[in-house]
Amino acid sequence: MRFGVLGPTEVSGVPVRGAGLSGLLVLLALEAGRVVSVDRLVEALYGPSGTVNALQSQVSRLRGLVGVPLELGPAGYRLVVDPLEVDAHLFTHAVAAARRASSPGERARLLREALGLWRGPALADVLTLPFAEAEAAALEELRLSAVEDRVEADLLTGCAPLAELVSELGELVRRQPLRERLRGQLMLALARSGRRAEALEVFEEARKTLAEELGADPSPELAALHLSLLRDEPPSAVASPAASAGPLAVGRLPAASVSAEALGAASALRPRAPRPRLTSFVGRDHELRLVGRLLGRGRLLTLAGPGGAGKTRLAVEAVEAAHGLGEVCFVELAPLGPGSDVALAVLTALGLPYGHSEPPGPLSAARQDPSASMSLPRGVPPVDALVTALGDHRVTLVLDNCEHLVEAAALLVDRILAECQRVRVLATSREPLNIDGEQVLPIAPLPQPPHGLDLEQAREHPAVRLLADRAAAVRHGFTVTGDNLEPVLRICRALDGLPLAIELAAARLRALTPAEVAARLDDRFRLLTGGSRTALPRHRTLRAVVAWSWDLLDPAERTLAARLSVFVSGTTAEAAERVCGGDLDLLSALVDKSIVQADGGRFGMLETVRAFCAERLAESGEEQRVRQAHAEHYARMAASAESQLRGPDQLRRLAELAAEHDNLRAALRWAIDTGRAEMALRLTADLWMYWWLRGLRHEGALLSAEVLDLVGPEPPEGLAEDHIMCALQMVTTGRPLEEARERLDNAERLARGMAEPPRHPLIAMVRPYPAIASGDYTLLLPALLAATTASDPWSRAFARLLLGYLRLGAGEVEAGERELRLALDTFRMAGDRWGVGQAMLQLSELSGWRGEHKEAIAMAEEALEVIAPFGATEDTALLMSRRGAELARAGDLAAAEVELERAACMARHLPGSEAEAIATYGLAELARLGGDPARATELYMAALAGCEAHWLGAHETRGRVLIGLGRVEGDGARLREAYDLLVDVLDLPGASGAVEAMAELVLREGPAARAAFLLGAAVSLRGAALTDGPDVVRTAGEARRVLGDAAFERSYQRGCSTPRDQVADLLPF
User: Fold this and answer.
1) Which residues form the Bacterial transcriptional activator domain (predicted)?
2) What pLDDT does 736 receive?
3) pTM above the 0.70 mark?
4) E strands within 675-775?
């Protein structure tokens, strides 16, 4: 396939219509072969207000384009094509190949072929989308550069007709009046055509335009060409104005008095190149392009970020890849001590030693032998000598590691930029220079690998690629495999994606396995030592990297940094001030110095920096005081939000708590570990609803169990209600029945002893829970009916939701539907989105029973939209499985498989949930109905293994899986086991599926009348008939064919009228 973005978007010559669809395809094509996260796609296509639903709509349309190989994984979407199938990538590759051509003629030919790929402006039909302008500008810059290279090759060969070149260059200059290289090429083409006067006019136009637009003079190269034309030199002798070739003459003098001999020395710059790179450059493609664009836009760019983030390497690669920077001089400032003269270091890097006691030799000698040893006299201040030496040279200074000399570096750069108009500066620092004209590009660590990556995706992730590359260098044959994938990912995540830390960890793989390294990262500073002997001392150990930044802080900054280490995953400025003291200026200073990272109103530390600062906090003697302040702050936050999680402010308060999830957990962890029972109990009770809304029920249950173990059966005075809430949370997932029964019996006892009306509405639900735990479902109905009269609307709605589940499970379809619709209405009035989603999930299934698949799918989709803002992975996966099952019933098996695969993938790493088992069961059903019994059996067994450990809800899933296995194996005993299990948990709709499967099995052996009876008995159990279930339709059709309509109806109706409690005795197995 061929993907075109250099012009209107097209696939293999076929136009793609619609900006949204084109934009999605273009963005994926520009990252061909690489995973693009959902968040990045939404932001790029729709901006900050975009939604995932809008993206999914375009993804569905894109899948409809014939042959587009779009792949979905946990980390996002990927266009699975060779990048060279995308014209933009092919163009970049072709231009690079052309520039390596051995002759100008060959170079011109290859560049023409490359430029022929363009069909119009890049990204022409998507330029209104947020991401497109910058990408299109980068491609256009490359195109113009290629055009300039092709023109230069044409001028060198002399094969192209000059008249055509003049016409082409005239139009290019009209469109790009600030590109001096095109101006110079036009001047040369005019001169060679005998139109020297016109060539001189082009220069005068350039001088005027540059002065008006940029306040700058023409470049030395263009001025030199102008001078040659004025001297009436033969056109063939006039050099082409390409990129700078060799030393340039000094063009202007500063006010300081500098001798002519010194100027002679300065005219021969011999700038120091960066050290040769001996390792690969990984994972900074976007930043590399961005640095190039920013250097072209301004004259000062600072790469600012924490130590070890890879700023130096990025700077080196960027100046190597960029065009039009002139000569590049690399200045290492790290070895300099405090008070060192930065200008002197730059002079030395430029090859101009300062301080020779005698004047240097004659000016002519310097020009004849630029490599001769020259130096500048001591009488001139180094900064004046430097400014003089730079003069009108086109030079890019790379000032590496400015942070410890930031004031001196800032003053020097300000002077250089003011007096040397052709000089650019690229600085790397842990804090910005903070001078006028500075562009600051924050350099963060590499992104951390997301959860859910498969082996192939993980190997492509930048942090993993870096670790694998460096590890292979020290341990021959090392590669990331299925066996070591998990510890490799743990290493990259634990080290924040920090390149230097990853490289130090890779060095440890010489002797240790990835699992051994990952297990030792709790003591990362002791483990990660022994970096390269040629590296700077502060880059040889992880501790030294952070200590270098710490030593640059003043005492007040160090105190605040140490205290901030109690926050996990960041915090707000308000919380930092309340817990740590200090003011906003101090916090801002820590951000500037890359100790703290600022992101969207939140402030946090890299985990490595936080660990270092936590050591300093422990040494300070105030650790427990600060941690208590932290815990008390988040306990107050949870208490103030608890009641508002059930109403119209639900989303706002949930978002606040979700942003502080790690801090809330850390506060509770500290309260448990230090034995603060009252705080732990209150905080757990206040987080109950948060855990449910976020789909974190398993986490809440485990922490609740720890709190109850700490507190014991008798709560502190006034905290009985909190104790009950803790018990309710504990028994919701993954707890043994005996333990659940004991905890709930105690909760019911405490509820009976409460004198005051409960603060938590769920206290009214205590009585139903012991009935669930004991398995005695006959106790549930009166308890839930009593709860429907509660004064709190949310409690009434929740009781009706449970009552609807119960009635449907008992085969009372009409009554169950009525309760669910009442629950839905009440939840909507209360503004509770979670309740709305849960009610719609069950109502969707009811519509599916009736064959109303369009309505059922619409309900599932609306429920997904309602709960999407919660970020509840478990609930989202369950609703996706519901939608997938309904798509299968509607006959769209391909769409059903995609949806169920996504649900299974999403649920794969959820602890204590049967969501993956439910999705896997759905995939097994598709395999069975699709005629692949071996695959179906494999999937059924996987689903069975996924629902063995959870007592609440898992029995229903287990029963349905057993039915599927019974169908595939033709095993009546399996079907009877499923029936008994589902009846025991009052899931009669599930049990009816077992009876329908028995009917199919019976029919294989001949007695069609009994099969018809069993189909009717299944209707009796469920309380409704499945109008178009494929298994039922097939079995009923075959039985009707054998018996005839009348005989079939008699047997079927006899089954329908059989009382539910008699069905078990009439089953064949």
Assistant:
1) 86-230
2) 61
3) no
4) none
